[in-house]
Design goal:
elongated; about 40% helix; 8-stranded parallel β-sheet; alpha/beta; about 290 residues; single chain
């Protein structure tokens, strides 16, 4: 089970130099590593060695380690152990959990972790067997855990499809901090694209989300999904980058011309990716 850490007492004393007392970074990090290893032992899982590959370098330079990556199939127990230790450590800015096998229950752990992760800026959950249920939990996390620094979420290679997007946007539209969302290779079709277009990209009173970058590479939004996104892009004023590469857009001028017009009309976009789509390859009429 995940236990939230107690609130830390604030020290107001001063050291010999007259500067406020502060913990030694190397000491804090070594304490964190010991705590993580103890939690792994308690949860009957193996502590990751890759996560701490550059640990000693940070200690020798007396710098806090702020980027953590777990890329081994440690399952729910391994993810929970790391998240609990990081909750006490409090210095993590980027957390990547790649192919850990944590599944949807891992999102429950992260929902608790993000309540105290005040410095977290990026969360990468690539290829973790997240289903529509997990997307619903992520939506709830985004709706209530509005840490001002949390700006990027990556869910690539989780095959939750349209149903997952529908569950995710319910909470995402209430979040005002997230700036970048990556949903590459998630088996998202026209229905999911339309949900993102109408509930996230289209300005409206019920939408607090102000995404600046959206990546949908490697999905199957097709021409109909592209048309829905085009209608939203035309009126969106915050989006800076959109990636629709490899999305089966086809070569139907009736559907693609509105997309092209919307991209040209939008005043905020600076990056558009449409590669790996068969566009304009129809042979000319005889």
């Amino acid at each position: 089970s995940f236990k939230l850490p107690p609130k830390k007492a604030v020290k107001k004393g001063k050291g010999k130099s007259g500067e406020p007392d502060g913990p030694d970074p190397s000491e804090v990090m070594r304490k964190f590593k010991r705590h993580y290893q103890e939690l792994c032992a308690q949860n009957n899982t193996v502590a990751s060695k890759r996560t701490f590959a550059s640990f000693e370098d940070y200690c020798s330079e007396e710098q806090y380690m702020t980027q953590f990556a777990l890329s081994e199939p440690v399952g729910l127990a391994g993810v929970s152990s790391l998240a609990q230790a990081l909750a006490v450590y409090g210095k993590c800015k980027e957390l990547s959990l790649l192919r850990t096998g944590m599944g949807d229950d891992g999102i429950l752990v992260l929902m608790q972790y993000t309540q105290v992760a005040e410095e977290l800026e990026k969360l990468d959950l690539m290829d973790n067997d997240i289903t529509p249920r997990g997307c619903g939990l992520l939506g709830r996390m985004l709706e209530r855990a509005v840490r001002p620094n949390f700006a990027k979420l990556v869910l690539d290679h989780n095959l939750f499809g349209d149903e997952g997007v529908l569950a995710l946007v319910e909470g995402l539209k209430m979040n005002g901090t997230l700036k970048e969302l990556s949903l590459d290779y998630c088996h998202i079709g026209p229905v999911g694209a339309q949900a993102l277009a109408t509930q996230i990209l289209t300005p409206q009173p019920t939408n607090n989300c102000k995404l600046e970058a959206l990546s949908l590479k490697g999905n199957i939004v097709g021409p109909q999904g592209a048309l829905a996104l085009a209608e939203a892009i035309r009126v969106n004023g915050t989006l800076r980058s959109i990636n629709l590469a490899d999305n089966c857009l086809g070569d139907d001028d009736v559907l693609l011309r509105p997309l092209a017009a919307a991209l040209m009309a939008n005043g905020s976009l600076t990056s558009v990716a449409l590669d790996l789509n068969v566009i304009g390859r129809r042979p000319p009429p005889p």
